[in-house]
Queue: 3 jobs
Job 1
Amino acid sequence: MATSHTFRANSRGALDNAQLQRALGNMHRDFVDSRGRAVGEMPEYDALKADARAMKDHVLANLDFYLERFASACEQSGGHVHWAQDAADARRIILDICKSKGARTVTKSKSMIGEEIAINPYLEQGGLVPIETDLGEYIIQLADEPPSHITAPAIHKSKEDVAELFLEHHGVYGKTRRLTEIGEMCDEAREVMRSKFIAADVGLTGANFIVAETGATAIATNEGNGDLTQILPKTHIVLASIDKVVPTAEDGLTLLRLLARTASGLELTTYNTFSTGPRRDGDADGPEEFHVVLLDNGRSEMMAGPLREMLRCIRCGACLNHCPVYKATGGHAYGWVYPGPMGAVLTPALIGLEKSAPLPNASTFCGRCEAVCPMGIPLPSLMRHWREREFSEHRQSMNARNGLRAWSWLARRPKMYRWAVRFGGRVLRHRAGRAGRLNRIPLASGWTAARDMPSPEGPTFMDQWKKGTRA
Amino acid sequence: MSKETPQVGLFVTCLVDLFRPTVGFAAVKLLEDAGCNVEVPPTQTCCGQPAFNAGDRPSTVDIAKSVVTAFESFEYVVAPSGSCAGMLKKHYPTLFEDEPVWAARAEKLAAKCFELVSFLSDVLKVETVSASHDGSVTYHDSCAGLRELDVHDQPRQLLASVTGLDVIEHDTANVCCGFGGTFCVKYPEISTRMVSDKTAAIVATGATTVLAGDMGCLLNIAGRMSREGHDVSVRHVAEVLADMSDRPAIGAPADRRS
């Protein structure tokens, strides 16, 4: 199902899609402006970032301890903890819980990890009806598409696209008018969804973090649908990867403060909800059963090497929002769940480099992702790590490899190098004539298809310098 | 070695050597005007970034060793490129995990390596240059210079002292032009979109010249500019600071040679 290996072809389609390009242009500007403003207004941003990073590094160095702590605290408050080695384990555990409760419908709050384990098709096969309740996720569920962004899953859709989808799918609820305003679309979605919240047997959410000290899980949403998902059904299942654990609720708040500003430019996300165990006597609401599925799915392997730094990621999406490659292609081109720079690092770790080798190469290493990452993840270095793996496993094309090898050989032999550059420069100057540039170079169509190649000015600097030229 | 005369080894960079010798001469002039003694070690070739960014660490290590050997005797190493200077300064020290002697030599080199314009401003405390340039320019912040070496204010400060020149900023000055070394030929369609966004932002300022501190970006921007038929000159910032902007711009016809 992943199409990451055909990234280049995917990206061409995306570049030719005018509507998508408009949506990406708007998104990019809005996200960059709002994050810049929100971070600029926070004098303690750098200190907070350093705290968060140190906290997360400490947790990763002591992960077993904090996970066990979380599990015992969660069980003490009446919750059930399940350990899932991989996606298949997690899917089975979730379906088993649903079946044991005789569930028919499952409401879901937006969760990238639900996408990672492809839970929806599995629940459908198992005879259940999964219902996405995050508005963006609901829209792409209607469209039968994957998310194109980790915090704004339907960012590639226009208002008109959404109106069309609602017209097509809401007729069964007696909604037959084509809507034109975003406000009325939200109202209609709210109305349609309300009955589903009430009817749902199981609510399935992700977690922005889980708290070792108290056994609580926490989500941050801007619509509040996540709260209805976890409070109304009789059973609440939380799906979280093992890297989500933090020592205390206060540590979680550090992450929430960074998350809101870098993800959406808000000071704080609208709804920040902690869930600790099932409903207790005297509680106004809450589920009868509370389950937490802790998923590894490749994280333990990442712990061993340089990719460990990637486990600090809090899924804020800032690296996508500031990436000029993501801005050009959108998220679907990346071909799997996680797009942009964080996806280019994470995807090879989770589905294999052989299925995703183009992704770590799809970067100019401009460094903007690392600069805006609130957790200080060195994304370009981690992409380079995958390129090194690709090189050492001989995965690149023979042409690329031979070209690189020839160039490296020359670069280590100054005399031969001088000669080759002198010769190459002469050929380029001869072909350019007095035009000062070339519009076609054999074997370099990647460059010349859309740009000219400026001609060398004259003999090389080193030759002129050797002859005594000084200006 | 006299304390009054800084001894500088100029790392010319492979793109300046081949495409734009003027930038090398401009660098020499600026450094000498600021009181430096400049030498150009003849065994230099390239900093090794093409291999480094393609994942070929063994070749990168070999190339880095020859650069360290060629330059470690100088008091300072200066390159007219944020990208190559960043390679020497930020990445060489990470290459020798298993070779402590080389790691130490790379660290020593890194500590005395600088990008040209920031070296003039930050180390030599140059505040003005004697140069003139007719017309408005816009400045593109090359990614490595900006984000690895904090080159941002220095070129703007020195440009402010050039007679007749004003800087009109484009609002995406800190956004990548889409060059990215081999990226531009691996993903030419994406690279084209990025450089087209860049040229559009430059053209929108009405400036007659765009300047930057890295030849990779400049070749990319100049190549797209001329393909789109815009009449905007593309130059390395050092050419203007060294008062050498009477020469034909990058990719411009040679018939205006002075």
Note: The two ends of chain B are 38 Å apart (CA to CA).
Job 2
Amino acid sequence: MNAVNASGWRPSMGEAGQAGVPATSSGDYGLMLEEPLSFELGADGKCGVDIEDADRAPMGGLSKFLRKQMPDLPGLTEPETVRHYTRLSRQNYAIDLGPFPLGSCTMKHNPRLNEKMARLPGFADVHPLQPVSTVPGALEVINELAFWLIDLTGMHGVAMSPKAGAHGELCGLLCIRAALDARGEERHIILVPESAHGTNPATAAFAGFTVRSIPATPEGRVDLEALKASLGPDVAGVMITNPNTCGLFEPDMKAISDAVHEAGGYVYCDGANFNAIVGKVRPGDLGIDAMHINLHKTFSTPHGGGGPGSGPVVLSEALAPFGPLPFTARTADGVVHLVEEENASEFDHTQSFGRMVAFHGQMGMFTRALTYILSHGADGLRQVAEDAVLNANYVLRMCEDVLPAPFAKSGPCMHEALFSEAGLAEGFSTLDIAKGLIDEGFHPMTVYFPLVVKGAMLVEPTETESKAGLDRFIASLRSLAERAKAGDESLHSAPHFAPRRRLDETQAARKPVLVWQG
Amino acid sequence: MRYLPLTSADRAEMLESIGAASVDDLFVDVPAQARLPGPIEGLPAHASEMAVERHMSALAAKNVSAGSAPFFLGAGAYRHHVPASVDHLIQRGEFLTAYTPYQPEIAQGTLQVLFEFQTQVARLFGTDIANASMYDGSTACWEAILMAARVTRKGKAVLSSGLHPHYGEVVRTMAKFTKDEIVSLNTELTAEPDDAAVIAQIDDKTSCVVVQYPDVLGRIPDLSAIAEAAHAKGALLVAVVTEPVALGLIEAPGNLGADIVVGEGQSLGVGLQFGGPYLGLFGCREKFVRQMPGRLCGQTVDADGKRGFVLTLSTREQHIRREKATSNICTNSGLCALAFSIHLTLLGGEGLAKLAAVNHARAQAMIERLGRIPGVEVLNEAYFNEATLVLPRDAREVVRELAERGVLGGVSLGRLFPVADGLHKGLLVAATETTTAEDIETFATQLEELLVGVPA
């Protein structure tokens, strides 16, 4: 049963016996609280909402459709519900608890003003299909955020509706497809560097393209010559992440764009790492044709345990005419219009590739992102990028003597520091460092990504960390590197102090249990 | 700046530690001609919390919120009462500010919630299993069509005319690029849904039929008959539910033969939010599990043998499988799934049934009252909490005029189907537990004045 790590030890459990204190009868240990499934707590007939009785029976026409059995879902009263979820919440690490240095994911502080603004009834309690005369403020929010995104990136237009980063990638590639169709060209290859996020090749395939990989240089950059050699009449475009997933800026970006344009293709930039350069450089000045912006990364809308995200896509003059419906447009009289299928021609947008989502995109994320942007302003956003880059370089230089940093020998990194597991004692790996960080009270960094580095550890501290906080993290990371080099076996069974020890992922996948069987 | 902890002294000390003369030394890889010399011109500088709040509140105040007027809109987004504890709990920082649970030892809170959510969705839909959420109902619908094509190895999808037109648009947009064949049927103002027309389109090349239940005009298709016809030709039935509260009253699609059930979960816990973020629900038969899109949470044990949860079957997903993944989806709607799950936990199965009964009763009261207005016809023979009225004139104008009179009076079919003929007199009206008798009377009085004139 304990196949994952039968040799593990657990001081937190052992101490109970050693100190002469018996194990508890509840299975809880002080503030370490276990929590059953809601279905194991609940009972039929319990309800946490007072609902009045219906004053009439179902209509006759409905009789043949009525549900024969209610869904077997036991309910909980309000106090039981609040306690259930509060106890569960305590089994999560979160940016509110400490550093969460997941490279590429950008876990920065989520200001609570953003939450408060998103909950104003004028934003939160508005239906997407209300007459436009009743929602001018909502349209202004979308339009105001759109203008910030265009100005910060130096691009021509922006598609606001994509629901997350990967959805934004799809939007960008569909714009490229539509532009090629308009030119009457059937180009079917998208070039993607080896170091790309998995979403890039997945999106290209999802949009009907064939993916061709291009290699990296030994310095962790796109190999410009190899890329040029791959260009040709079949190539629709490239997807480049900049700053890239090794945490480095692509210095040849403009040359890459020029070469791709020369060959008749388009340049898609994965903007997942825009937070490193916001206010410092504009992608539009580097020849980018389309780039998604993860509002949940750069502009601090909360990650929420896996979404919702929001992925507006800024577009060049060449691609903007093909962007999706609906969008907002401000006319000279200052009025913001909602442009949909029926009035697209009035706004000279007849070449749109169509609609990607049912309504207008992630309004709740737009209000949060705009609140964040207005709070920082143009000067603050620039400082955000500078602090994020400074923090990452500080981690890089303070740890590179104990953990090799393969791509940062010659120069600085951007917003994330990339280390490899080379040099650890035999049998020790990145996983041991990551799980050791959990015991140290930190969330681990991104591990085993990018794939171009063996045992990659990608540390993104963000601008949220203070110097004192970074110093504590660095001390822990150094200590773990030393222990792994010295062959400290206890690392293999880490974490010892988390709500759970290492989980058996093989068993989970072999015979999947995806719903409660009770 | 209130969100940036580094002081000037910290910055100077850190630069010295790493041997950089200035922060610009860290941006040396950015070509000099592309580097901006200072903050971008023409954009405002940072602002205090109070100033930002003032600006945003002024924008919010320009909108008419649903709670401030008699409100009867539905069409894929519904106004339900969300218990106060839901919003409190989703704002706990441990949920709000956590990432996707890639380190399961310190993410059991999120993972157990996802496991409970998957169970709730499966039981609500009557499917064997469900995933950990998609972006929204419309994108879940497209993903279901792609999945049906993988399962059946066929590429023709038939869309019922009762499918929400935006969902249909999303499907047709995506299919342009994947070359899947999509057969769309024209929506007509008939009392019965288009079951027979859908069945007539099914042939040996059909991968799936996509049927909304209840449909966009509030009618209720006979899923059993369609499922039988689809299965006879080796096709799957994809049922689309845009109002999950309905499943507290009418039979679950999975119990009627649907192979894949997708839906929009916004009704439970999420709120209107001008269209997003919403919550894509996705359930299906267990035998299709390896063809499913999106994240899945599964039960397992830890090294001490304790029950725990992990993300599983990730070999379907983009971060492992790259261009061969079942979908490109990465971020989903985790926090909305949490809100949905909490709301459904508060309700329980019996609470949901009660809520559904009240919704249906309010809708009956609304339809009976509006149907008494001279010139107004009720289209539906059956409906749950939403039905279609046929007015004596263009419903779109009527909706605009109602708004001027302070009533948010439904969704005109002209707005939903801008290019379709023969639907412009249709008005889709919805009622929920939030609809009061006074709201209905105000709506009816104003509508009657508009259509018939002020009584002498």
Note: The radius of gyration of chain B is 25 Å.
Job 3
Amino acid sequence: MFSKKRIMLGITLLFLLLTVVGCQSKAENTDANGETKDSGEESGSDEVVTFSYFNGFGPGKDINTSETKLGKMFEEETGVNFDIENIVGDVNTKIGTMIASGEFPDVVQAQQATTAMIDAGAYVPLNDLIEEYAPNLKKLYGPYLEQMKSEDGNIYLIPFGADNGYIAPPNVVQGAFWIQRQVLKDMGYPNPKTLDDYFAILEEYYQKNPKIDGADTIGFTALTYDWRFFAFSNPAMHLAGYPNDGGVLVDMDTREATVYTDKEIQKRWLQKINEINAKGLFDRESFTQNYDEYLAKIASGRVLGFFDYQWQVSQALNNLATGGDPYKEYMAFPVVFDEDIKDQYMDPPAFVASPGLGITVSTTEEERVKIIKFMDHIAKEDVQKQIMWGLEGETYEVDENGRYYRTPEQIEKVADQKFREEFGFAYFEWNWPRGEGVFSDGNAWEPRNQPEVAALAYDETDNEFLEAYDLTVFTDLFAEPEERPWYPAWDTPIEQGSPAQIFQQQSDDLMKQSFPKIALASPEDFEAEWNAFVDQYRKLDYKEYEKVLTESVKKKYEMVKGK
Amino acid sequence: MATPSINSVKTTPVPVPETKFKKFMKQCSEQKALLFMTIPFVIWLIIFKYVPIWGWTMAFQDFKPARSFSEQEWVGFKHFQFLFTDERFLGVLRNTLAMSMINLVLGFVTAIGLAVLINEIANMGFKRIVQTISYMPHFLSWVVAASLVSVTLSADGIINEILATLGLADEPILFLGIGEMFWGILGAAETWKNVGWNAIIYLAAISMIDQEQYEAAKIDGASRLQRIRHITIPGMRSVIVILLIMNIGYILESGFEPQYLLGNPMNVQFSENIDVFVIKYGISMFNFSLATAAGIFKTVVSFVFLIAANSFAKKMGEGGLF
Amino acid sequence: MSKEKLRSGIGIRRTREDVIFDSINYSFMVLLCIVMLYPFINQFAVSINEANDSIKGGIYLLPREFTWNNYAFVFQEASVVQSIVISVLRTVVGTAVSLFCTAMVAYAIAQPNFMFKKSVTIIFVMTMYFNGGLIPTFLLMRDLQLIGTFWVYILPGIIGVFNLIVMRSFIEGLPISIFESAKIDGAGHFTMFFRIVLPLSLPVIATVALFVAVFQWNQWFDVFLYNSSNPTLTTLQYELMKILQNSNANMSATAASAFAGSGSESNSANMVSPTSIRATMTIVASVPIIMVYPFLQKYFVKGMTLGAVK
């Protein structure tokens, strides 16, 4: 009896499941049909056209732009909206399959796979389209049109950020040596200029305060996890008075790009780390902690100092800013090796030509015109203001001098992600044609760079430190950037799989392997470890890499200066 | 029509093939149910698994996805050469082998052990609870699992605290900073994450054992350990052998997520395996050819090990895989 | 139930060995449960802890600042609900189809006198150790017109070779006498498959069902490759990946404003972070599938007695 029941049960179950499958297949079919009909209707009516936009940078929600306030306005003006798809996995994989199948979304921002897209002939040249249909785009990108051209003279990409005049950001958004405010306050607001100054301050405080809130004080920690390792290898460049050109220093006169990984400045930086390690000032976990642990450590308030780029530590800094103890926050300093070196931590006006958005060959001639007209609309100055500042009275105000500012309520409002999404800031601020710097009326392109906005946002403790150091805004400590038309050199397009690209990876691997040994060696072994590294490093094909970068730097320089 | 007779005359000298063929046809018709059960799936297999093998040609080209097959540039063994002549390849291969062997041995021993022990729990409710809980870590993503491992092993993590309380270490040990320990840590992490999951199949095997054997053994006065040794383990034997053979074929697969996530500058010489290497120098450089070359290499090695393991098992009198 | 009682009745004569064995075994199991359960308690604690606070780390068993915000953030997406439907569908359909097909082939290649026993086994086994690569597979799916359909989740995986071999070896382990007596009764292969093999193999079927179900439930890569631009076919795991990425965006927006100085308490209370979203995802995505196991357990916890079938 028992067995029969089981068998019957089993069979019934199977049939049941199979029926479900059957039903499901039907349901799916109608679903698919329903969909095609939908899109058919959409393209049939020529009122509003929907294009697809694949965004290889992410992150964001997949929406249609017309679901946002800004997107709706643009749609009314241009009759065009976009279905945005944001990448979720690996860009190379996704773009690889697109190229292989030859089917593309209408507009693609391919991030690191951009050169592969161009090589594959996936983008259409925009030169004539811009010339004919996009006067505003042409105006916005005017100074950079030459640089936007690829080898064959065609423009395939509209990059994000055409600099129109320089404006220093009021707050440090790039690399710097950071010190906890408590340290500064207790030691009478010192102003470290050199690396020796900097560590002397940390050391003195560390000796006096071996514990903070019951936990061991950490003198200086570093971020070395995965691809973020550059936060440990880049300081040498900054300490020597260069901005972040990546793995090379570019000579201001000859414009030769040279690697510095095996040079004296890198050795000097590592030697300093080696020295403070011997003194117990260097965080032992620097080379084993992951990103989360690093952030947690900084947020815990027991780290006295670190070098990093603001955007990498923003989570931790944010936590401290809302944590209730303003003295646990950090202040950034432009530290250099020697007094006579002029710091160059601030980004010079830069033009990054890739990645950008491109129109793919999957579009028709007619569609391309519609798309470029939409981009042209976006490029208008008053539309740029809408995208960056929003609407007057809603997200910003104008004072009697024509200066833009935001009330504290508005600052609060635009910080809310939900609002940013509904309004459209979250979707249009990046990955579309955009400018940077200052508008023709003198207001900052980006609200965060408007001194009025920053000043309103400073709290009591911020002001205490601004006064103590006699500053208006925190970046006043930093030197003005010098003109570097090629900046940033790391933007150089390097062919996928070329010797130069392989060198980059090899150099990175070797540094990751060797730097911990060099930094943590006992001081008497330092020289030997360093020399061993240099020997290995020089076996790599760095010359090829330097060659590729030098060529690109020179070319870019000539394009800008040659005009 | 005279042809049939001629034909039949002509074919008479070779009657053997015909009878063979006839025998074949007869067998087919006898086994038509079995053929009906397999042929559709063999066709499926060929379409879904064998057709894409044309992609292996990529390993011998500088593959560009935009070009058609005939436009690809053929480069011979260039990508294999890159792989095998890279200075670090030997180290990477060593790490791969070490980690996958540790995983193989640890994985088998712990999973079988756990299954046996769970089977010995008499209380049904507790047995179910243990089973369910033990397989839960399998559902953690490696990102989460690795961060928990990292926190546990950090300077102020629980392991160091225990060591300090017991007075075994003067100062915290940075376990992830000691390259030599990486394989062990990884093996332990894999075991923790997957032992319950891996035990499921052995539990299923145990449950196929006829309960009467246990009762008979009990009446004969066999002890617990004797019953485990003489009934439970032999009952799982064929499954163990099969799984072992299949897994030996995966000798060059040691995964990449945990290595990638737990790897750091101090242990990279022990943590980097073939998969991580291929991601760095292949996929992330848009070099699908290198990835394919590495895949072919792995397949060849797999087949060698698989066939060796299979024939060894057969020599030992086991069923073998095929 | 009665059987268990009977068995424990036999076990009344507990020897000293039994007592020692059991106490060691039970203590070990309790310890094991603690180690295995900890990550989930930890992730749950993080998921109901305020995101900004979680950045500090140090959350182990209990949240420090309780909130449901992270869950709200995940479930505010309409797409999540839609994706759950597809996830459940692909799990159920995928498992059912795969079980049926795998069991059938396994039955055939378990027959000792099947003429293609060896060759069929070999061509299946070989596929475990190679694949043509991403791009050829993608092009195949395109040529089969599976892209943008639900079936791209089901068809490529109708037979898992690992599962096939496992099933085969279980079926081979069934006593031959049963088949022989069935044959004498005039049963054909299909009858034997449905009436003898399937019911007798419930433990392995349950096992394979679990394997397939978990595989289907956890998949997100095929969504990424084939159906990423089709919002009606998105799955839970894929949506969660998206939300995780989004939490990064949210994070930097909030962080930027806080950095500009306006980071008031009210603002940060709405914040999410990758860490907290990841924890929330872990709970949301794994709890449903973990629940499957206890239901399947009854097929192999008990153990079976072949005698009952005879």
Note: Residues 159 and 165 of chain B are 10 Å apart (CA to CA).
